[in-house]
Input
Amino acid sequence: MTSLHEIVADGALSHVLRSFKEATGIAARVVSPDGDSALAPTAWEDCSLCALVRTSIEGQCRCAQSYARAAQQASSIGEPCIFQCHAGLICWAAPLMAGSELLGSILCGQVIMWDSDDLFVDEVMQRTHDLGICRSQIRSAVPQLEQVSPRRVQSAAELLSAMATYIVQSGDLVLKQRNEIYRQQRLLGEAIQERKRLEKELSAGPPARNMCSPRQERELMSTVRSGRRAEAKRILNELLADIFLTDPTRIDIIKARLLELAVFLSRAAVEAGAEPQLILGLNYEAVQTLSRLDAFEDVCLWIVGVLDKFLDGVANAPQSRSGLVRECICFIHANLDARLSVTDIAAHVHMSPSRLSHLFKAETGMSIMRYLSRARLDEAKRLLASPDTSVARVSEQVGFADPAHFSRSFKRAEGISPSDYRQRAITAE
Output
C-alpha cells in the first residue's frame, strides 16, 4: 500500500494548503483515509466551535469518522464531496487517489451557509449533547463561524479538486522517479557483479587504467544519435561498472571522466538534431549539479539523468535532418577507425556519391569529408586524454594510416601537437 508521505513531502503539502487558504480565505488540511488529520496540519486552525468539540476524545473520534466518510464518498464519485459534519458545520473533501487506491483527502471548511441564530445553536446542542459542552459555550462560539454563500462553496470545491489533481500528479512523478532510481541502482549493481565474475573467470587481474573502453564509448554515442534509450543505458551501466572497479575511491577522477563523457554525449545529441541551445543549457545545469556531488552512487545517477535529458532532446528535435543523413552520421561515428570515402558512405545508404554529397551539405552545412575529419579529431582528443594509449595507436583508431599525417592534421586543426594536447589534458586532471 502506497503512503501519501512516500510520494509527497510534508513541506510541499503545507505550501499548497497555505496557498489555498490565502486564495479562498478557507482553511484546508490533508487527512488520511481513516480520517486522521495529522497530515500537514500547519495550515489548519480549528474554529472556536471545533475546538470545543475536540476537547474530548469522543469528539475527536467523531470528527475523524466524519472525515473518513467524506473521503470515502468523494473517492466513490471521483470528485469533491460537500457534507455536514457531526457537529453541523459545512465541510468538503477532495479525494487523493493513486489509481483505485485512496491515499487520503483534502478537507476544508468549518463554515456555515445560514444565519448563526438560536435555531442553529439548538441544532449544535442536539448534535453534541453528550460531549460535555454547555449551551453558553456554544452560544459564544457560533457567531464566530464564517458564513459562506453556496456559490463560494462550489467555487472553493472546484479549486480543491484542481489542487488534489496537482498533488496526486506531483506525487506520481516523484514515485516514478524513485522507482527509476531503484531500477538504475539495481542495473548498475548487476553490471558490477557481472564484470567481477568475468574478471574472476578470465583471471584478468586489475582492470586497465583506461576506465572507458573506446569501443563502448563509440557504441554509446551511436545509440544517442539514433535515440535508442534502452541500449544506451545498458552500455552506460557497463562503462560505470568499469569505472567503479578501476578506482571507486577517487571520486575526483570519476567525476572528471564522466564530465568528459557528458560533453561527447551532448555533441552526439546535437549531431542527431537536438536543439544546440537546449543542450548547451542542459550542459551548464549538469556541471553545476555535478560539482555538488561526492558519492559514487549520486554521480552515477547524475550521468544517467544527463543521458536521459539528451535523449529527450533527440526525441523532441525538429526533424530538420532526414533519416538518411542521420544514418550517414551514425555510420561515420561507428567506423572512425576505417579509411572511409564518400563512396563507402554513399554505398551504405544506397545513394550516388554526388547526390548524397549535395544532400549532406544542404542539411549539415558542411561536406561529408569535413564532417568525417572533425569527428575523427574529436574522437582523437577524447582518446588522448588517457595516458595508456600511444599517439600511434590513437592515430590508428581514428582512421589515419600514418601517425605523422595524423600529427600534422591534428596540429593544423588544434594549433598544438597530439603529445602536447595529451600533456595538457593529463595536467588539467
Summary: The longest helix spans residues 150-202. The beta strands are 28-31, 81-84, 90-98, 101-112, 146-147. Residues 4-176 form a domain with the Beta-Lactamase fold (CATH 3.30.450). The CA atoms of residues 187 and 237 lie 7 Å apart.
